Amino acid sequence: MPGALLTDLYELNMAASYLHRGMDALATFSLFVRTLPANRGFLVAAGLEPCLEFLEDFGFEEEDLPYLADALGYDEATIEAFRDLRFTGDVWAVPEGRIVTADEPLIEITAPIAVAQLVETYLLNVITFQTTIASKAARCRIAANGKDLVDFAFRRTQGIDAAMAVARCTAMVGFVATSNVEAARRYGLRVAGTMAHSYIQSFPSEADAFRAFAQDFPDRTTFLVDTYDTINGVRSAIEVIREMGLADRLGVRLDSGDLDALSREARRTLDEAGLPHVRIFASGGLDEEDVERLVRAGAPIDAFGVGTRIGVSADAPYLDSAYKLVEYDGRAVLKLSEAKATEPGRKQVFRRPGGDVIGLRDEPGPTGAEPLLVPVMQAGRRTGPPRTLDGARRLFERDLERLPETARRLAAPEPPKAIFSEALERLTRETRAEALRRAGVRA
Predict the structure, then answer these.
(1) What confidence tens digit (pLDDT) does each residue in 374-396 have?
(2) Where in the chain is the domain with CATH 3.20.20.70?
(3) Phi/psi of residue 403, each to 5°?
(4) Nearest-angstrom CA–CA distance, 429 and 343
(5) What is the pTM of this model?
(6) Does domain 144-311 sit in CATH 3.30.70.260?
(7) What is the tally of helices (H) and strands (E) in the chain?
């Protein structure tokens, strides 16, 4: 597991300073997204399970300590304090797969301040990236309107760890398979793949390549038909299917050109050959807008492979996420920076039909509302077994059904706006006045 050095230097500096001064009171930090990208109507919470694994195993390895002393110059007392640090705190979080919006805490950490500070970088990295990808993938799900989707992102993601996370997040929102074999093994996913153009080119003819592949994989044969001429490739596939008597799990893959026109001609050619059961799979630099356009046009495509643009969330590659202190040693705190002000106190998000309410964790909330944040760690240990991807997918499906159509739109979506409870607004006013007084700012 990753160690405690996966942090920014200023986190180490602050932690060392806290430890020097015996500042070990409990601090609560809240991780949230300030504003949604212009083309997002919602977010899908993701990344929690990897973060809980990190927190359970958090600590400095023995080999980390000489580096901290020799290269970074921390004194012996600090090194000894670092040696003993573990995450012993509590975590409340929105379960993976749930749909959220701006300002709503995705995770709240309560722990001695040095440790709560040190885990900031890792939590922000994982939650931000995986929520970004899950949200992008969810838009593809909406665009596909029931058609199958397969994750093809592995070769274009910005790193191997990112590829693993993309496979996991796409499965969370309902993709049926991934091309990533290791991700399929690790997360129990269905793996899918066909062949490359190089395979076709290495044989004397297209039909020879199709025949060889079908001999080796007769029970899962999808023919890549656009290496030379797409419709001629479809005819070659038909020839091999008839010749070899293939019947099960058959498809043709279109990877270039006018996918609408080519899919229609391919479907007509297959149907005329008495092969209506042969599926048409489309790929080739697709994103949710391409998928939506093809589905709305009625293109006879059964499944889509999406890769590059989803693997980097090309149109919105980051989120304006933040990890901010909201309580220290029982005292509510806030930040008043222009355009970056925060609300104080440990929080809860209450979901109700009229819109979400962000309130204080210990307030009752609106009648009939569902609390989104749940306790997932206490005293450094999980409150239950790890949640599964199937469970996250069920939560996503339920929330997606209830999401307003205006937020589901791919173009010009209108994200739901959460409001603050009266109790939170009152605490904010009181904490603001106290913060200004402490800062010596005159009203």
Answers:
(1) 999 999 999 999 999 999 999 99
(2) 144-311
(3) -75, 135
(4) 9
(5) 0.96
(6) no
(7) 17, 19
Give pLDDT tens digits for 239-260: 999 999 998 889 999 999 999 9
Neighbours of 206 (CB within 10 A): 23
Buried residues in 387-421 as b, exposed as e (16+ CB within 10 A): bebeebbebbeebbeebeeebeebeebebbebebb
| Whole-number Å distance between alpha carbons of 411 and 119 | 36
Q: Which CATH superfamily is domain 9-133+318-439 in?
A: nicotinate phosphoribosyltransferase (3.20.140.10)
Radius of gyration, alpha carbons of the chain: 26
CATH 3.20.140.10 residue window(s) in the chain: 9-133+318-439
CB contact at 8 A, 227 and 194: no
Q: CA–CA separation, 426 vs 365, rounded Å?
A: 15
Residues of the chain with pLDDT under 50: none
Q: Give the whole-angstrom CA distance, residue 114 versus residue 58.
A: 13
Q: Pick the closest to residue 149 from 360, 32, 294, 349 (CA basis).
A: 294
**Token digits for 23?**
């500042």
Query: What Cα–Cα distance (Å) separates residue 224 from each residue in 184, 209, 217, 355, 419?
Result: 22, 10, 14, 47, 51
